[in-house]
Design brief:
Layout (H helix, E strand, L loop, with lengths): L5 E5 L2 E4 H10 L1 H21 L3 E9 L6 H10 L12 H17 L1 H10 L4 H9 L4 H6 L4 E4 L11 E9 L4 H45 L18 H26 L8 E4 L4 E4 L2 E3 L4 E2 L4 H31 L1
Helix pairs in contact: 2-10, 4-8, 8-9
């Protein structure tokens, strides 16, 4: 019985497995040299790939420590005409927390921060060396993105986590820390300016009402008409309300000045005025630099396999040339 070392017809020819093994043994030097050479090349390439680093930061939105400000907001947004309020306190906190996330991810905000803050100077120098503009760098959304929170924090919808990818010799942790802090300040300032605009609208409304009351000679309010038109309150009561509103607006302007001069220091944002006190520490976990692991072993193995395949292709071509010349 003939040994079963042959594979039946393949393109009209019989392939002998033992012949293949003999050829591979005969060409073992070529296989080893190419495989080893490619493996070394892959290793050298992996070791010379620039290191990549990243930093993550965890932020919290407006938490319970900011309740006095929201109580103040409730008072400011209370409409005397129909006794209704705007968004609930929880809804307002969630909306502001979502706004914080959006503002951090806005590329225009990040670009403006990089261009105007000294902490980003090492990044700007690196981009110039690589002939990359800040705009091009910002357009790559993978450099700054929102990531999934640790499972232990899944139930807290006020928490959010961001990751910043950056090259070697760039202080990415400091950039991320100061950027998120500055955006937190911006969101809070916008919220206070919103309260200020509501107060100014109320003030203007009462100024119009006091003019009408003065012209009509209404000095004191009619107790049966307090829920009707403003001017029916009388010029005396309206004058007191205008003074109170002027004082509240001054308090808010003072608070905005406090925020303007706020330094990052321990990461706290503080406001103190006679109407409300405010304390917010938006950064829960400060960022620290971590390095992405280089895929050295993977690249080396893949390169070795590529060298082995190339050696087989060369052997195949050599064998077929010999057959052609024999014919």
């Amino acid at each position: 019985m003939k040994r079963k070392s042959k594979i039946e017809q393949f393109n009209g020819e019989v392939i002998d497995l033992f012949d293949i093994i003999r050829i591979l043994i005969r060409e073992r030097i070529l296989i080893l040299v190419l495989s080893f050479s490619f493996a070394i090349a892959g290793l050298v390439y992996s070791m010379n790939i620039p290191s990549k680093f990243y930093a993550t930061i965890t932020l919290v939105g407006f938490s319970d420590s900011t309740s006095s400000m929201f109580h103040y907001y409730d008072q400011v947004t209370y409409f005397e005409s129909n006794n209704i309020k705007t968004d609930s306190r929880d809804d307002l906190k969630n909306n502001l927390s979502n706004e914080l996330v959006r503002e951090i991810l806005y590329t225009t905000n990040f670009e403006k921060f990089i261009k105007s803050n000294k902490v980003a100077d090492p990044l700007i120098k690196h981009l110039k060396k690589k002939d990359i503009t800040i705009e091009e760098y910002i357009r790559d959304r993978d450099n700054l993105e929102k990531t999934e929170l640790n499972k232990s924090f899944d139930d807290d919808n006020l928490l959010s986590q961001f990751i910043f990818n950056f090259p070697e010799d760039v202080n990415g942790d400091e950039i991320l820390n100061e950027y998120t802090y500055s955006i937190s300040l911006k969101v809070l300032k916008n919220f206070l300016r919103n309260i200020e605009s509501i107060l100014i609208q109320k003030l203007n409304k009462k100024k119009r009402a006091i003019n009408i009351a003065t012209e009509m000679g209404i000095l004191l309010p009619d107790n049966t008409s307090l829920q009707q038109d403003e001017y029916l309150k009388g010029s005396k009561l309206l004058s007191m309300e205008i003074k109170n509103l002027d004082r509240e607006i001054d308090f808010l302007k003072n608070s905005l000045e406090q925020l303007q001069n706020q330094l990052i220091n321990n990461g706290e944002i503080l406001i103190n005025n006679p109407s409300f006190s405010f304390k917010w520490q938006p950064i829960v976990y400060k960022p620290f630099i971590q390095q992405y692991a280089k895929s050295t072993i993977q690249n080396t193995v893949l390169s070795c396999i590529l060298g082995f395949i190339l050696s087989l292709m060369i052997i195949f071509v050599k064998v077929n040339f010999k057959k052609v010349f024999k014919k």
